Amino acid sequence: MKEGTQFDFAATVQPILEEHCVRCHSPGNRKGEVSLATIDDLLESGYLTPGDAEASYLLDLVKSEAGERPSMPKEGTVLTADQVAVLEEWIEHGAEWPKEIVVRERSKADGTWWAFQPLQTDFELPAVLSPESSASDVIDAFIEQRLEETRLHRNPIADRRVLIRRATYDLTGLPPTPEEVEAFVNDSSENAFEKVVDRLLASPRYGEHWGRHWLDVVRFGESNGFERNVLINNLWPFRDYVIESINADKPFDQLIREHLAGDVLEEDRPDQAVGTAFLVAGPYDDVGNQDAVQAAQIRANTIDEMIRATSEAFLGLTIGCARCHDHKFDPILQRDYYSLYATLSGIKHGSQVVVHREAREEHDAKVQPLEAKRQELTSQRDAINHQVLERGLARLEEYEQEWDREPIDRRLTTDEFPPVETKFLRLRSLGQDNNPENRNSFAVEEFEVWNTADVPRNVALSSNGAVASGESRHIEDFPGAYGPHLAIDGELGKRFLATAGTLTIEFQKPEQIQKITFSSARNESEPGQPKFVFLSDYVIEISTDGEQWEELIDSSGRKPVNEAARNARLRRLSITPEDQQQLAQLNRELAEVNRKLREIPSLPSIFIGERDANLADGPFHLFLGGSPQRLGEVVTPASLNVLEQFVPNYELETESPEHQRRVALADWIVHPENALPQRVLVNRIWHYHFGTGIVETPSDFGYMGAEPSHPQLLDFLAGRLLASNWRIKPLHRMIMLSKTYQQSSQNQTEAARVDADARLLWRFPPRRLSAEEIRDTMLSVAGVLNLQMGGPGFRLYHFMQDNVCTYEPLDVHGPETYRRAVYHQNARASVVDLMTEFDQPDCAFSTPRRSETTTPLQALTMLNHSFTFDIANELAERLKREAGEDSQGQIRRVWQLCYARDPSPDELEECKIFAQQHGLEALCRVLLNTSALIYVE
Description:
The chain is an alpha+beta fold and 937 residues long.
């Protein structure tokens, strides 16, 4: 070993390992079972012999001979000769490696990344501004600066009819009425457009439209997704909460705090608690895997979904990429991810009663006396049943002498008896094997009745002419899936699932029979835990006419299938008339108490998630490679490491209360010094106004996202957001009163060559309406839009549920569905013709930016769907009411309703001729299918 030289590991060796090695050889990704993250990892591998470079296998791997590529690294740039020499010298000097240094692959960005920096407030405003300039003027000046750099010029102000149509759709998602258009066109005051904007911001339609934007971001969907995809019928209050909050212009920092911790910010505030449904508004797997390893993975996936939703919606960061390793592109450590995991660990999907304390106390005052009475009556009934059972147990030995046959076996139960002739045979349940008190439900996969022929034949087979009947479990989307015919089809596997306790078989003709065999799980090798319920006791009856029945055989001589079945049989054998009379009276009283309890309205239960202290118990660890089975270092609830230079950090003890962690996270996110959520929010608002954000990746402000087109404007808007106490209505107003917003969308050939997408905003970018806006527009112009707000949503699909759920699109949309589309009960992975064709996203994921496709199916659906026919007819009726029989008046009115303008003379004449030839309804259908209706200039 060489001595007398200090080797600077951090300056020489660490960069080599970061660049070439730890991408593959780290604790969460130990290729070849080797990690180079710490000196202990490397020594453990045996690849390093401090002081002896020649004996260190590490050098053999990175050296190349005769021009061949060395063994390591397998991918990427190989080490240079100088780098190999550095490693060799370092080993010879004893391989000194400070204990506090953990080598990690460097992310592409670091703490100097633009999005993490404090808001810029000291930039020089453009010289064209005067002290009297408004915030809208500042917006224009920033836009003009970039335009001048590329020698582009902003378009002139748009035509007033175009402008009010644009603004009305922008803020409400609905077309302006002809009366609103004319009022604006004829308003000569200087603040005419300002008045329009203020009116629209005060409209309840504003919250419905911008609430839909936010629901896209927070991945709001009303089914749980995955293979079961069950509807969640009590999540709609969160949708209403979002709409009401935006209409009220609730400060957005408060909205974020309520999304993460609204249930604990203040006592007795159900209006805030509803906001916490954000955490569980995404998809989740509720199948309930019995394998512990898989269950742990599912739980990890569930928390991961919450982490991704939280980080992308509020911070614009893809923190979920740090689940398995440190983020490859952004300076986010795996430790950061699992600190968030610890913060959110106590949340699980489910419902809670969300009411004021007074309402709960009033409800309890009504319920508790009845509950006490029910408990008293139940105890009396149990006592009688216990006495009856005790009498039966006292004679157990006597009874057991009579139980000399084998117990019922769901794999195969056989009954033999002297030959008897019958046309009908009935199996009647006396109890279920896992619940002997239940006489209605049981499963039979095959029921066989054998005749007395020399070669006995199963006369119960449907192929032999037999017919089975009996009430069964019904599945709407798969009729007959559990029907009685399955019990006599001669095939194992499919089962008759009885719901009324009987299976009846009619033979083709009277038959001499002598044996019956039946089962529910014939191919099971061992009894084990039943997958399908069978019988604990039964009676088999026969009949010649299907009306009068006599008993053929029963199970009374069999040994009980289990202790519960034994006790049920003993109670039947030991009960007296007096017992029966007392039990009947108690059951009547219980029924009355239960009736009174049912009449008391239940307290509203809302899907805001449940809080589980056991899940929140630590310690919490990193999951190496993202696997809950590979625990790494211990972590505690804490904020992101990279922002601690700007934002006060939080770090809590593992034992801290679950709610305290969420409050700490919420307060850290909306801290005034945390510029990320401020930039992210104002960028989303800009995005929805202009179709593209200043950062065109609204939920990714990291290295893989886009950089801002106008960074100073972004920070200016964020500063204005803070100045308005996080209220977004002033921001809307500021943007919409700018010349940039009000300019024409007219195309300029030369400008389009320079900036085809109008990212620099030399014109207003036209856009197609969203799926919801298209449907709402059709209803609105036809005069049939139902403006009822709030409450459970309507459905444009037929919902069917068994083990999994089926969503079948409706061919007919009746008037009960004529509400705004934001109130549709959107289920994950469901298809809703018009909405799906026009790019309504699947709410399984956050959708910060909607797609806009053009497909043949859009035209086919709009033209041929019964909804279009219905709305065309409604629109024609409206025109007749409002314009009488004057065809020119009808055409002018429909033009005003659809396009906010009058038709030209040529358009008027063409429509008049078309209506004469094909009818007013056909004309309305054509107009509903025009691009001009569904595009905003």
